[in-house]
Structures are given as C-alpha cells and as structure tokens.
Amino acid sequence: MRAMLGLKDMDWFVGLEPADLAPIEAALTLRRFEQGQLIFERGTPGNTVHFVLEGRVLAVHWTQAGREIVYSDIGPGSAFGELSVLTGGLRSLSLYARSDCRLYEMPGELMHELIDINPEVRKAIIRGLVERIHSLSDRVEELTVFGVDDRLRSYLVRLALERGGLDAGSVIHDVPTHAEIANIVGANREAVSRGLAKLGREGAIEAGRKFLRILRPEALFRQRAD
C-alpha cells in the first residue's frame, strides 16, 4: 500500500527546507473523509485550501437538470480550493471524496501570507493555476470539436500519464466507474461502455474490475482522417 504523503511532497512545497515546512505544518489541520462524503459545497464561503495526502477527490457541478459534470479528479500531492481563497468569493464547485482520503486544511490567511513572503510557494501556485487553465482549454476543445470515442481516448491517455505511464503493459489501478468517466468526457455511461469495449476488441486495452491495462498505447491517440 502506498504510504501517505507529507507536506514536503505537495506541489507547492517541494524544495522547501524542513525548517521552513515545520511552522506551516503546525498551522494545518489533518482531515479525514470517507468515500462519497462532501468536503465542501458549491456556493459556500471559500476560506480554506486543501492538500490531498491520500486518496482522490472529485470536483463536480450539478446542472439544473440534475446532471453531474466532473471537472477534475484530484490525487495525492495536489491542492484545491485556492481560487476562492484568492478571490474572496464563494466555492464554484462541490468537492467529494472519491475514495477514503486524508487532507491537510490550511487557513486562507496563511495562504495569503505565504504568497507574500515566499517566492517559491508563490511561483508554484501561479504555475498550478496556469496548468489548470491549459487543461480546461484543452477540455473545452475536446468537448466542442471531437466525438465521444476521441474524447474517451484522450481521457485514457491523461489518466495513464497521471497514474504512472503510457508504456505497453502499464496498469492503471482504481479506475473511475463508467458513469464517472462519462461525466468527465461529456457523454453517457452507455457510450463510454461501448467505447471501452471497442478499445478492448481492438487490442488497445484490457479492462478489469477497478483496473485497466494499456496494451497498445498508440491506439489511444486520436485517429485523424487523411
């Protein structure tokens, strides 16, 4: 079993000395959430930022029609909640524990203090926000230009890279359900099931219960017409 990460493993704090980390860690609260538990809800005050030490978190939005849209699947080493802390506004998304998880919770005042006094933390926060913008831009393009099969292939490529690699034989553990994947790629569960089955017949992947093995990585890249 993978050991729980510490503050030194968070993207914001990589490279900081133990003497710099100690007072930061002393100001944080360790929180535990069970699978499916609400961490915070859209429209509530955003006065804390969270760091994922163990487990995974889903950022979702419920439409007026009751459809769930998954914006991101957040894993260990990452932060969330910083946007509303920076703007002083309300939470724009609801966050749920996708699995049992442990998080560090940081007061918003401390985040602002670190931005003011620590250039490395400030650069890491800016870098993370820029990467998020690029990721959302790519997703908008996929949703507006590409079909379900291509969006599914792109998602599997991203998932493989995030979880360890895209080499032939690589295994992705704790794969989201078909319904969760559908909410991420903007499709329905049946379309995702058909797309995964098609990739299986093509010999691109092997899917099992909560795992997926990459057999032919090249088959996961979008098929372009000549």
Automatic annotation (TrEMBL):
SMART domains: cNMP, HTH_CRP
A GO CC term attached to the entry: cytosol
HTH crp-type domain mapped to chain residues: 146-218
GO terms assigned for molecular function: DNA binding; DNA-binding transcription factor activity
CDD domains linked: CAP_ED (cd00038)
Keyword set, alphabetical order: DNA-binding, Transcription, Transcription regulation
UniProt cross-references to PROSITE patterns, sorted A to Z: CNMP_BINDING_3, HTH_CRP_2
Organism: Paracoccus aminophilus JCM 7686
Listed PANTHER family: CRP FAMILY TRANSCRIPTIONAL REGULATORY PROTEIN (PTHR24567), HTH-TYPE TRANSCRIPTIONAL REGULATOR ARCR (PTHR24567:SF74)
UniProt-recorded name of the protein: Cyclic nucleotide-binding protein
Domain spans labelled Cyclic nucleotide-binding: 12-132
Keyword Transcription: yes
